[in-house]
Description:
Elements: H1 2-28, H2 35-38, H3 43-56, H4 62-74, H5 87-122, H6 127-141, H7 144-162, H8 170-187, H9 192-215, H10 226-244, H11 251-265, H12 267-273, H13 279-301, H14 305-330, H15 332-338, H16 358-396, H17 399-406, H18 411-438, H19 443-449, H20 454-463, H21 467-495
Helix pairs in contact: 1-21, 5-6, 5-16, 5-18, 5-20, 5-21, 6-16, 7-16, 7-19, 8-9, 10-11, 10-14, 11-13, 11-14, 13-14, 16-18, 17-18, 18-21, 19-20, 20-21
Amino acid sequence: MLAFIARRLATATLVLLVATFIMYVLVALSGDPLADLREQNTPEAQQKMAFRTKNMQLDVPVPLRYLSWLAGVFRGDLGISKNGEDVASMVGSAMTATLQLVVIATVLGAVIGITIGIVSALRQYSAFDHAITFAAFVCFSLPLFWVATMLKQYVAIEFNTWLKDPTIPIGVIAAIAVLAGLLWAAVFTGSAKLRLSAFAIGLVSTGAVLFFLSETHWFADPGLGLPFIAIVSLLAAAGLALLISGYEHPRPLYAALAAAAVGILLYLPLQSLLADPSVLELLGFALLTAVVCAAIGYGVGGLLRRQAIPLAIASGLFTAALIFVDRLLQAWDSYSASVNGRPIATIGSATPNYTGDFWHVSLDAATHLLLPTLALILVGLASHSRYSRASMLEVMNQDYVRTARAKGLPERTVIVKHAFRNGMIPITTILALDFAGVVGGAVVTESVFGWKGMGSLFTKALHEVDPLPVMGFFLVVGISIVLWNMIADVAYAYLDPRIRLS
């Protein structure tokens, strides 16, 4: 593996050198960096032209200028922009904003899209499959700027106005309940009686929950509460155990349930510790949770410890995440009051000059992330769902899947251990490209929502004919693409034992 990585790094270095040289020449010849100063016939303009010419080395031939820039890169110096700013600092601040915006959207879009695609493949040609296919094509064809504008209007402006009196009309409750019932009926397969029962359960449960939330004005002062956390964490532990290990040998299930139960019992004692924590304290709590849950899995798992330990850790961290979200929502009412009752932001990455405790600052960041994240998820999950559906359908028709069924293996084992693992190979390529492109930012989304990320840095530098910020952007994105493609190659060998990196 080390030899493979060394060869790939050597090849990638040569590719980056050629690509950066071509890009540098193109940007250097794309316009005149002194054009704005040539229009001013003043002594100050002449001084600025001389200063900019010296800083940007405009009196040096382009190939020599590139070699000077490349030597600076090896020293960790990306140069100075035309306005005298340090390019490394510009790229660093822009990358921070971009990663904050795009990473969450990319991960959620990939997880949701792949899950929907797999379920759609398992329910091929069902009502659920047709509905998902239609929705995926609609989302894929929507212009991102239009989606972002609609989200600003209806998920921010209209929603903020509605929060002053957060009651849901009966007609809206009925419509949402019917849609939920249809979704439940589409997911379930079997006789018409079973699907009708699923429709009724989805209809009644959704309508009852929405009516309760409306009557209690839950949206004005939301929270999860201990009963909700207990029920959801235990159900999630049971569902995860069913998916990974099944119920034939119950010890992994007991480990997952025990980890969730420990988190539930610690809900009340943790409230005082979570009054105003720091990020390091939260990371420490997460690490401690993983250690404790690993010990639970080791002790309860018996001979099935290899399955019980990861199940217990996942169950414990999920319960901890629910407790974190509950504590975050407890600060919603006071945060909303501090921003004049308009909590959902429409522009920027943070409220200017906003101060508060950890929970208020976190809510401020989350509400600014909400709309751009939704926009990117809606557009991105469509492609992920289609790729994962096509991949799973191709794998499900392979001989080894039919052989596994003929041997009498449970359907869960056939899908999770045989079909899904091999179906992930082409999806891994798509995910690697997506995560590599994360660093490049989202130009349209950043423009609509006023984020100062890598996308806006790139477009602004191109517009102003400022080569070095463009090269800083190109260098970071190029390195990211190389690294993620290497990670994808290594993942192939893990997913398919027939692939050898040697």
